[in-house]
Design brief:
2 copies of one chain form a homodimer. A 7-stranded mixed beta sheet of chain A has the order 2-8-7-6-5-3-4, with helices on both faces. Chain A has a 3-stranded antiparallel beta sheet with strand order 9-12-11. A two-stranded parallel ribbon of chain A has the order 1-10. Chain A is built from 14 helices and 12 strands. Chain A is α/β, with parallel strands linked by helices. The N and C termini of chain A lie far apart (54 Å). In chain A, 43% of the residues lie in helices and 14% in strands. At the A-B interface, α1, α3, α4, α6 and α7 of A face α1, α3, α4, α6 and α7 of B.
Chain lengths: 396, 396
C-alpha cells in the first residue's frame, strides 16, 4: 500500500485550484475577457526590467558550467551576503551571510523551517484565517496544529485567545503579515504584545517558542510599516520569498533568515541545513540565486497593486459590501452577504465573478478576492459586483 | 528543543563536502592548477549551446509574468508531453504527460517518490555501494534501510543476497544505473532477474514492491545499453534529472515518471503530487521547465567524458591500480592499494590528489574518482597517481 495520506492530498485539489480550473473552462466557453477571475495569487505585474537584464547578462557573460553548477547547499555566499546587508540596512537586524539559507521559495522556506524545529507531536499555532497549505506543511513535519481565530473588526489575534492556546508542547507560531487572505498587517504594538506573551509563556513552561515569520508579502505594503519581527522577538526564523516582490512565483526562489538572537542560533541554522538536505533541496536554483542577488532591494511596480486596492475597495464599499481595510498583500477579505461564503461564491459565478470562499482559510463567512489582476478587469467587473450585491439583497 | 536529528545532519557535512572544502583551501595555498581535485560530481562539460539559446529566446520573447509565473503543480503540460513523447520514442514505455511530474532535480524526485510510497516502518533496499544521501532521504521518509552489498568482480547484486533482504515490509528498492560511485550499468539480463525476483517475492508476501529507478546518469553511457526498467518491471517509478545530461546541476530540474503499468498508477501519481505539495515543492522552476522542454533529447558533449574515462582508466591500470570497468556515469571506483580507503585518500593528499573514500557509499576498500574534470587535469595528474602507487607499494 502506498501512502494514502499523500494520495488523498494529491487528489483533494484545493478549493482555489478547483475554481481556477472552472475559470479555465469558462474562459474557453465565453472568452477570457468575460470572466472576472479573482481566484489566484499570481502576480499580474511583471518583474522589474532590471531582473530581465540581470538574467540576460548572466547568461551572456558567465561560464555556463559555473552559472548552472551547484552552489553551496545554503546558497551562493555573495548572494547571501547581499541579502544580509539589505536586511541590516533596512532593519538593523545584525544579519550575516552565515544566517541566510537560500530556498526554493516560501513553501520550501516553511517546510524546511518546520522540519528543523519540530519534534513529533510538537504543536504549531496558526492564526486563522491562514494560507491553507500551512496545515499540510505542519502535519507533514509531524506537528499538531492549534488554531487561534482572529476576527473582525481587525483580524488581529487577541492576547487571551493566544494565551489559552499555548502549552508546554507549543514549539512555534506562524505569523503572516501582511496576511493572506485578509491583507492585514500586524501593527508594531500588537507584535510587541505577542512577543511579550510568547516570552512569558516560554519562561512559564521552560520552553523555547519560535516565531516563523512567513513574509512573502513584506514588500507589498501600501504605506503602513511592517514590523520586522526579529527586532521584537529573539527566537525568530524569517521565511522570505521573491515570488511576489519580484513577480517570480514560478521560479521558486527565497530564503530563510535565522535570527542571530535566536537561542542556539548556529545550531538552529545547522538544523535548517540538515532539513533542507533531508527534504531533497540540495541548493536553490542557481541562475535565480545570482539573478535575485543582482536585484536585492528592487521590487515590481507595487504601486499598481495599491491602485487596484484603492479602486476595488472603494467601489465595493460604495456598493454596500463590507471588508476589513487591507493595508498590504494583494487580497481583500470580503464579508459574504448572507454569511454563507460557498453559497455566495456559487452565486457570484452567475455574474462570471470567480471568488474563493474563506472556509478553507479558517475564515468562514468571508471570501478572498485576489486583486493582482489588471486594472481593466477590476473596472469591467464592478457592474457584476453590483448586480451580485443586488441579487444577494433580494433586489433582483 | 529543535530537531536534533536535523541539526546533526546539518553539522555532519558529508565526506565529499569535507574534501571539497580542503581542496578549496589547498588551491588557495598552492594554486588551483596544482591540486588534482577528483572529489565532486559537478559536470565539467558545459550545457549544449542550444540550451543557452533556448534561455535567451525565452527571456527575450516571452511575457515575463507568464514565463516566471506558476505552472501547474505537476509542471507545464506541454513540457511534460514532450518528455513523455521522448520516453516513448526511445523506450516505447506508453508514457503520457499525465504520468510525468516535474521536479527540482533528482534529490527532489527521490524524496517525493519515497514520501509517496512509504508508510512509517516500511523497508527500502539499497544496493551498496550507493550515493550516501539515499539513506538520509529514506530515513526522513520514515523508511528503514536494508543494505545489499554488491562486490567485485562486477558490483552487481547477487540474487541470493537480494532475496534474503526482501520481506513483507519491503516497499521499494532503489536502482541506480549507471551507478554512482562505480560507473557500473546493470545489464538487461541482470535487471530481468531482479524484476522476476521482486515479482515472485511480491506474490509470496502478497505485497507490491516498487523499483525507484534513480537515473541522473542515464545519458552517460559509453556504448552499453542502459535497460529501461519500466519495460522490465511494472511497479516502477523513474526519477530523472537533467543535471548531468544537460550539465545543469545547480538549476534543480528533473522529473518523476510513474509507469502506467504500475499498480494503481493513477493513485500513485496522485500520491506523488500530494508528496510534492506536502514537502513544499509547489512547482519546478518555471524558466528551467520551459528551457529543458526546448532541449529534450539533447545532451552535453558526453563524448568528452568517454575520452576522460578511457584515458584515466587505461593509465591507472597501466600503473598497476585495479578497478571495475565503468561503462557509464563519470566515476571510477578504484581499489585502494592496501585496502584502507581513508588512509589511501590521506596519502593521496601528499600528491595533491583529492579522492573520496568509498566507505560512506558502503564501499569500503575503494575510492571514488570523479573524472568530470578537464582532460588536462587528468593528464597532469598521472605522474602523481604513479608516485602515489609507488608510495603504497613501498617503492618510495
Amino acid at each position: 500500500m502506498i501512502s494514502k495520506k499523500m494520495e488523498q492530498l494529491g487528489k483533494k485539489s484545493s478549493v482555489i485550484r478547483e475554481i481556477f480550473e472552472y475559470g479555465k473552462r469558462r474562459k474557453a466557453e465565453i472568452g477570457a475577457e468575460n470572466v472576472f477571475d479573482f481566484s489566484l495569487g499570481n502576480p499580474s505585474i511583471p518583474a522589474p526590467p532590471e531582473f530581465g537584464a540581470a538574467l540576460l547578462e548572466l547568461i551572456e557573460k558567465s561560464d555556463p558550467t559555473a552559472l548552472h553548477g551547484y552552489t553551496s547547499a545554503a546558497g551562493d555566499l555573495s548572494v547571501r551576503a547581499r541579502i544580509a546587508e539589505n536586511i541590516n540596512s533596512r532593519f538593523s537586524a545584525g544579519a550575516s551571510a552565515e544566517q541566510i539559507y537560500m530556498t526554493c521559495g516560501a513553501a520550501a522556506s516553511l517546510t524546511i523551517s518546520l522540519s528543523a524545529l519540530i519534534n513529533e507531536g510538537d504543536e504549531v499555532i496558526l492564526l486563522a484565517p491562514f494560507f491553507p497549505e500551512y496545515r499540510v506543511f505542519c502535519e507533514k513535519a509531524g506537528a499538531v496544529v492549534r488554531v487561534v481565530s482572529c476576527r473582525e473588526p481587525d483580524f488581529l489575534p487577541r492576547a487571551e485567545d493566544l494565551s489559552a492556546a499555548i502549552n508546554e508542547k507549543t514549539k512555534a507560531i506562524i505569523i503572516n503579515s501582511p496576511n493572506n487572505p485578509t491583507g492585514v498587517i500586524i501593527p508594531k504594538e500588537k507584535m510587541a504584545e505577542i512577543a511579550a506573551l510568547l516570552s512569558k509563556k516560554g519562561e512559564e513552561f521552560g520552553t523555547d517558542i519560535y516565531i516563523i515569520a512567513d513574509e512573502p508579502y513584506r514588500e507589498l505594503s501600501y504605506g503602513m510599516e511592517v514590523p520586522y519581527i526579529p527586532n521584537l522577538y529573539d527566537n525568530t526564523v524569517v521565511c522570505y520569498s521573491f515570488s511576489k516582490s519580484l513577480s517570480l512565483p514560478g521560479e521558486r526562489i527565497g530564503y530563510i533568515f535565522v535570527s542571530p538572537r535566536a537561542k542556539d542560533s548556529a545550531d538552529l541554522f545547522a538544523a535548517v541545513c540538515g532539513a533542507g538536505r533531508a527534504l531533497g533541496f540540495v541548493c536553490a536554483p542557481s541562475l535565480m540565486q545570482y539573478a535575485v542577488g543582482k536585484c536585492i532591494g528592487l521590487t515590481s511596480d507595487i504601486e499598481l497593486y495599491r491602485q487596484n486596492r484603492d479602486l476595488l475597495f472603494g467601489a465595493l464599499m460604495d456598493i454596500g459590501y463590507s471588508a476589513v481595510y487591507p493595508d498590504g498583500a494583494f487580497y481583500l477579505f470580503l464579508r459574504a452577504p448572507g454569511g454563507d461564503a460557498p453559497a455566495f461564491c456559487e452565486k457570484a459565478k452567475k455574474y462570471e465573478l470567480l471568488l474563493v470562499p474563506g472556509d478553507s482559510f479558517g475564515g468562514e463567512g468571508y471570501v478572498r478576492i485576489s486583486y493582482c489582476v489588471s486594472r481593466e478587469q477590476i473596472e469591467r467587473s464592478l457592474p457584476a459586483f453590483k448586480e451580485l450585491y443586488k441579487d444577494c439583497m433580494g433586489e433582483k
